Amino acid sequence: MSTTRNSGPEYPISLRPKTTITTKVLIVSALAVIACCLFSISASAQTPLSLGTLTTLGNPSSCNSGSGFYYYIYPNTGLALDMNCQAAKVSGCNNLGVTTSTLNVTIGYLSPVGVVPGVTVANGLVVLHGGGNGTAPESFALTDNYFRAGYEVVQVVWADDWEMISDPITGYGNIQAAACRPATVFNWVNTNLFLTNVLNNNSRAGMCALGDSAGSAAVAYSMAYYNAGSYLDNVELLSGPVLSDIEQGCQWKPQAASVTVCSSTSNNGGYGCQLGGGSTWTLSPTYLSGANSSVGGWTNDMSCANANGLNQSTTQQSETQWLLQSLVDQSNITGLGATPTFN
User: Which of 43-46's residues contact partners 24+ apart within 8 Å by CB, and which partners?
Assistant: First the structure.
């Protein structure tokens, strides 16, 4: 549907890069249009956790750009082309002894073919997942850059926090189990949009994903635990993944020890930090105010980084539960949790 607009708005994302996690984290600071970064840590292959079921709800319709979804403005006309929005629900996410409630999601997508001048086939597809609870589309500017570079773009927007297994929660939450939801969406996008609409017309096209802050965790969980690494060619993890080691982020009295980031003794000589030309800094990976409340709510343990304000020492039980739902390799915790695949 074509409408007239003057400019594209910008939309804030919660749980942004104030949170620092440093155990087995891929830090990416480059925002290049086409540059993607491989999620690469060595570990042995494991059986992935099972995906849920995505059920479409009706036919696609024009996205409501007022809700932050991307739209393309034609050159020299002021006319805009909205994304196609497919409403859906994700159900059947049952892993790690946890039954995750059904959650609605909207998948917005737009192909540049025949729209962007000179684009006759898409270079690939980039699915973008926003930060925080995932209820707002990822950056308009980033999406626009990829689209104008000839990539089909997809935005994922949840009706409620994707990290919450249910509302209300009885007992501990489990973000790793809840990550079945975005993993199921990414798999649907690959099957129904990339393989069908993109790869068929360009055998060199890539299936890519970009996640921001907690959205980068959605991508990384999908790769490490839900086999998304089998079809994602490249990913870009911006300001995260912030749920890499939830135990360290939530630990209180004492807080997790400070670490030096981008030091000369870092893995690969601090190679990842060179992308943004950043300097060395030292900080505890403890979640800051705001982020601690979000993670405390998702894990149903508000002792996370003193989110409850009680200033209590962290219990061993809480530390174990936080670790078991983190991204980091848990193969040394015999019989507990799932073991990720990193390659």
Answer: 43/329, 43/331, 43/339, 43/340, 43/341, 43/342, 43/343, 44/331, 44/339, 44/341, 45/341, 45/343, 46/338, 46/339, 46/340, 46/341
